[in-house]
């Protein structure tokens, strides 16, 4: 499947928002958003034009898609699935995105970014309920146990990523035993629980796909 291989900091500059795509670098002074770099391809002195409604909706969709590291086709499939689920479509979309295995591995601090978490899953370093799963889009269910394969527990990148647990903890719908490198997806989060994505307006994403 096609994937973006260019500089990911360019995405943050495009959206003028931290998308947390490079782990520790995003929290350092090297982050281009901290340095107030302009959007790529634009004259820094140029006056920004007014965006159309479509343009605003597109940017909301792109921000959320890039945060979770998904290609357009797969993101649209998740939206369609959320549309068919009972309840509010925007909340359903967030629930599905948070249930992705690569996202849960990232949330459990086994990886410093979602792209790194996706790589860990794809390379067979992650177990779900004791069974090796190498599909990043696999949907985790409540009470599923996510752990690191025993022979992979010495990997430096996992140990370094776990240091963030001591600084920031984890989301309330998860539990983690950092010594055993084992966590549990306790419950499906509500939209109001997902507080680290900033001001994403899911209604605009619904309007974008409704056109």
Characteristics of this structure?
alpha+beta, 5 strands
Description:
The protein has a 5-stranded antiparallel sheet with strand order 2-1-3-5-4, covered by helices on one side. It has 211 residues and is α+β, with helices and mostly antiparallel strands. The chain is built from 8 helices and 5 strands; from the N terminus they run ααααααβββαββα. The mean pLDDT is 85.
User: Over all CA atoms, what is the radius of gyration?
Assistant: 18 Å
Largest sheet: 5 strands, antiparallel
Structural class: alpha+beta
Strand order of the largest sheet: 2-1-3-5-4
Rough shape?
globular
* Uncertain segments: none
Q: Secondary-structure map with pairings?
A:
Blueprint: H1 9-15, H2 53-67, H3 72-84, H4 89-99, H5 101-107, H6 114-122, E1 126-128, E2 131-132, E3 144-148, H7 156-168, E4 174-177, E5 182-185, H8 202-209
Antiparallel strand pairs: 1-2, 1-3, 3-5, 4-5
Helix pairs in contact: 2-8, 3-4, 5-6
Task: Give a concise summary.
The protein is an alpha+beta fold.
């Amino acid at each position: 499947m096609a994937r973006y291989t260019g500089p990911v900091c360019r995405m943050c500059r495009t959206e003028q928002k931290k998308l947390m795509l490079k782990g520790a670098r995003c929290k350092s002074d090297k982050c281009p958003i901290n340095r107030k770099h302009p959007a790529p391809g634009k004259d820094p002195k140029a006056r920004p034009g007014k965006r159309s409604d479509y343009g605003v909706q597109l940017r909301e969709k792109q921000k959320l898609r890039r945060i979770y590291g998904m290609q357009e086709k797969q993101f649209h499939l998740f939206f369609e699935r959320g549309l068919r689920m009972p309840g509010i479509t925007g909340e359903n979309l967030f629930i599905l995105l948070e249930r992705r295995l690569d996202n849960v591995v990232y949330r459990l601090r086994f990886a410093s970014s979602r792209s790194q978490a996706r790589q860990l899953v794809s390379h067979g370093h992650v177990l779900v309920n004791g069974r090796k799963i190498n599909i990043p889009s696999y949907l985790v269910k409540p009470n599923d146990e996510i752990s690191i394969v025993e022979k992979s527990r010495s990997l430096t990148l996992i140990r370094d990523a776990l240091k963030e647990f001591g600084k920031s903890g984890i989301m309330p719908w998860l539990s983690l035993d950092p010594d055993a490198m084992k966590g549990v997806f306790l419950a499906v989060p509500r939209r109001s629980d997902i507080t680290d994505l900033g001001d994403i307006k899911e209604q605009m994403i619904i309007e974008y796909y409704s056109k």
